[in-house]
Design a protein that fits this description.
Largest sheet: 17 strands, antiparallel
Number of strands: 17
Structural class: mainly beta
Radius of gyration: 21 Å
Order of helices and strands: EEEEEEEEEEEEHHEEEEE
Shape: globular
Length: 301
């Protein structure tokens, strides 16, 4: 939903985004395709709503490979390409649109993991690479820098992490973000689990973030670079069938534009497959409340 001074525009889509991943430890590959169809509704101030058909297509491919492994240090190279297109047919009162966005990146990552005398682990990761944004909106080349520090206590299931990310080298656009996280729970997911994740600035590099950055209005962009807090509480219940686990959970996200509630359950069978059903309630200030349902299924061959 894009609020404007002369009225309001609402884009409603039903889409599917199948994802395929493959890994052998040293090499990880993934690919995804997406297609959606729906309507763009425009409500000018003081006038009736008009609408037009809209179509969304997305594509992504990428992977990572291990270049070198030492006793405590691992070096990997990562690459990815994501593209998306939004087509609006147009009509009386609505201009036809053909919007395209793309992102390509190549990154080198070095990770050092230390096993402490207490049995706890400390992991430090540094990454550097290049990124190119194309299509409609801000575009150009830039250098990406990032890092993370993670401390884990396996005995209690507690881990603490701090991450940072920045885009340098572009005079017309800057991007940065820092985030943290505290998680508590057994490694197998059984019993009580809790996570708290505050962040400030840009912390995502997914296709969703790419669309918000390229096609959103100023209000959406301020939200993308603002403050954010995520809290999640769940409880894993063993079902006694092929290591299956049922985890009901509740998640609350707070940011500069409002809050989002997520209520759902995850069902998994060891590391073989995972599925989840989630209901979302988005409350955005004075705007109307949006509801949606999300179904996900992952299967490791």
């Amino acid at each position: 939903r894009l609020a404007q001074g002369s009225g309001e525009q609402t884009l409603s889509l039903v889409s599917a985004h199948p994802y395929l991943g493959w890994s052998d430890g040293d090499l990880d590959l993934w690919a995804t395709l997406g297609y959606g169809t729906g309507d763009l509704e425009v409500t000018p101030a003081g006038r009736a709503t008009i609408s037009s058909d809209a179509e969304l297509t997305t594509f992504g491919i990428g992977g990572s490979a291990e270049l070198w492994r030492g006793e405590t240090i691992t070096v990997r190279v990562k690459a990815g390409l994501t593209q998306g297109a939004l087509d609006v047919d147009g009509g009386e009162g609505i201009t036809a649109l053909d919007l395209n966005v793309s992102r390509a990146n190549l990154t080198l990552e070095a990770t050092r993991t230390l096993q402490l005398a207490s049995g706890n682990t400390l992991a430090l990761a540094l990454e550097a690479g290049g990124r190119n944004d194309g299509g409609d909106g801000e575009g150009g080349h830039g250098a990406e820098l990032g890092g993370s520090l993670r401390y884990a206590i396996p005995e209690s299931g507690l881990s603490v992490e701090l991450r940072s990310h920045g885009l340098l080298g572009r005079s017309d656009y800057s991007e940065w973000g820092v985030s943290g996280g505290v998680t508590l729970g057994d490694a197998d997911g059984a019993g009580l689990s809790f996570s708290l994740k505050p962040s400030l600035g840009y912390t995502e590099r997914s296709l969703d973030e790419l669309w918000e950055q390229k096609l959103g209005e100023d209000g959406d962009r301020r939200a993308a670079v603002g403050k954010r807090l995520e809290l999640e509480l769940g409880y894993g219940l063993g079902l006694g069938w092929r290591q299956s686990l049922l985890t009901p959970y509740t998640k609350l996200t707070l940011d500069d534009t409002g809050r989002t509630w997520r209520f759902g359950s995850k069902l998994s069978s060891g590391e073989r497959w995972r599925t989840s059903l989630e209901a979302l309630r988005e409350e955005r200030g004075n705007a109307s409340t949006d509801h949606s349902i999300l179904l996900k299924f992952d299967w490791d061959l």
